[in-house]
Amino acid sequence: MGAPSETYVDPSIAGNSGTGTVGDPYGDLQYALDTMTRDSTNGDRINIKSGTAEVLTGTIDLTSYGATSRNKRLIFEGYDSAAGDGGIGAIDGNNGNFTLNPAQVDLLWKNLKLFNTGTAPVLTTRNYQQVIHCEITQSTAGGINHTNNDYTISIDSCYIHDIAGYGTRNVTKVTNCYFENGSTNKFTNAIDQTTVGFFANVRGCFFNLDGSSVASSPGGQMLLNNSILSSNGTGAGVTTQGVMVLQNNLVEGFSGAGGRGFDVAQTDPAAITHNAFYNCATNIAFATDCELIYDDDNETLTASPFAKTGSLPTDFTSATFWSDLYAYFAPVDTGNVYSGFPVGSNQTKGAVGQPVGGGSTYSLHPLAYN
Q1: Which of 33, 11, 164, 14 is nearest to 91 (CA)?
Q2: d(CA 127, CA 67)
Q3: Confidence class of residue 327 from pLDDT cuts 50, 70 and 90?
Q4: Residue 239: pLDDT above 70?
Q5: Which residue in 193, 196, 252, 201 sits closest to 224, CA to CA?
Q6: Measured distance CA(250)–CA(364) in Å, rounded
Q7: Do 41 and 72 form a contact (C-beta atoms < 8 A)?
Q8: How far apart are the first and last CA of the chain?
Q9: Is 70 exceeded by the pLDDT of residue 181?
């Protein structure tokens, strides 16, 4: 498979215009999909120019474009001046419940702000889709809803915030993402796996919550590791309903009445190890008939494990967005658990992640990913 064919859209110019080249882009995304010729050999990348949002007047329709397939995917990606330059495009649901729901497989969404879908989920995905470095925001129904729970969907390095209901639902792989409650819309479960029937992997994620919001509520099998779960509310870091492995996580601030770091309300097996808790009303609440396989080296901290330098970022287009997030949640020297930082003074304390390879190599803490 070769490189995908390139098509360009600039929402700032007149709709139903242009030829789709970088010098003469289409003025409308749906017009591009209805007009362009699909590359049935290598697939296509539709580059959406930053600066002006593409405002939908209906759900994205791929009828004229044609069916996507494995290794011939359709990519929606933002750009500033050239394809793949990292610019952040935007697709606005127009508050008209126009969910981004092309009924196809093998789509990739990258470097985009996807938002304002009213009472519909922001993005509804099917098989073999990826969402990379996108901002998902402004919905009263949910963020990313995966509707085929027997196939893979992965998201990476996304900022998911100001969403009511779930941040992600039935997503099989969630890595390096930042989930944050908004002032109006707040998660019920930032990650909702309550209807998934197979394994999900959540790694290196940050959760900044309040109220009764829960970071993750799994119903199938889940591995949650190297993540930061922070709140000042009454919810829980995790509520479990299926087979669960919880390891190498920092959990702070589920301190309100009934707040729980982990709520293991299940009879299925659970393994909980190398986690650190600070300022939680209850660190781990076990069901009386829980089948606990492994409970080892979990620690209660006497001070916050986070530096909290600067402030939490809100502008996803900023070049310092991730570094500001990491500075705020940088580990400090407290407790006896390992930080996972590969070098420097933060190697041995303040966060979680045991050394491997004879003590000279450290498993990655989420702050070390970027």
Answers
A1: 11
A2: 13
A3: confident
A4: yes
A5: 201
A6: 13
A7: yes
A8: 29
A9: yes
